[in-house]
Amino acid sequence: MKKVAVILSGCGVFDGAEIHESVLTLLSLAKNGAAYQCFAPDMEQMHVINHLNGEVMANEKRNVLVESARIARGDVKPLDELESEDFDAIILPGGFGAAKNLCDFALKGADSELHPLVLQKCQAFAKASKPAGYACIAPALMTSVYGKGVHLTIGTDQDTAAAIRHMGGVHEDRQVNEVVVDKQNKVVSTPAYMLAQNILQAAESIDKMVVNVLALD
């Protein structure tokens, strides 16, 4: 049985991990015969969004690890405990937390940088030639992890794609039910809610990513 590390970035589409994408990732891993363990950085998230009205809650502060525990039903470990040799693959669901907490792409675009611990842990899988999957906006992290020339998709949003190309990524337009498999780097990306109009489309996108990650040796 393959064991997969899943990095979460909080809880909630606008300031953390996208909940549907995260749960669908865990469900797809289980359906396809893989075990998983969730991880998240033990740090304060960039800000807190009221998901009812989309406004920033100025006086609210939340911890990424604590919030991620909501999705993982408490079974989540601090990211600094993740060791690549203990796992066969790694997956990062999307949500704005990936672009706000795991890196600062949401603020700086093409000039963004990854959180040092996130970069260290993701690069450990890349250097060990272990498969990885990045969904939704999470592929914006991939050029920092794999270097220039990595093939990826965030869907069809041209502004985001342009920023990724400026960072050195080779962006390929894909529809919601499609993936890009960079066989050289052993990494799979999919648009998920960058394009999905409902949970069924998101599920198809995530499942295709998971199946392709598990198929990579």
Structure description:
This protein is an alpha/beta fold. It has helices spanning 19-31, 64-71, 96-100, 105-108, 116-127, 142-146, 158-166, 199-215; strands at 3-7, 35-40, 76-78, 89-92, 132-135, 151-152, 170-171, 180-182, 187-190. It has 8 helices and 9 strands. The strands form 2 sheets. The protein has a 7-stranded mixed beta sheet with strand order 3-2-1-4-5-9-8, sandwiched between helices. A two-stranded parallel ribbon has the order 6-7. α1 packs across α8. It starts with a strand and ends with a helix.
Note the topology.
Blueprint: E1 3-7, H1 19-31, E2 35-40, H2 64-71, E3 76-78, E4 89-92, H3 96-100, H4 105-108, H5 116-127, E5 132-135, H6 142-146, E6 151-152, H7 158-166, E7 170-171, E8 180-182, E9 187-190, H8 199-215
Parallel strand pairs: 1-2, 1-4, 2-3, 4-5, 5-9, 6-7
Antiparallel strand pairs: 8-9
- Give the proportion of residues in helices: 25-40%
Elements, N to C (H/E) = EHEHEEHHHEHEHEEEH
Question: Low-confidence spans: pLDDT under 50, at least 5 residues?
Answer: none
Major sheet description:
7 strands, mixed
Q: What fraction of residues sit in β-strands?
A: 15-25%
- Strands of the largest sheet, in order across it? 3-2-1-4-5-9-8
Please give the alpha-carbon distance between the first and last residues.
13 Å
**If you average the pLDDT, what whole number results?**
97
Q: How many helical stretches?
A: 8
Shape: globular
Radius of gyration: 15 Å
What structural category arises from helix and sheet content?
alpha/beta
- Give a count of the beta strands, DSSP E runs of length 2 or more: 9
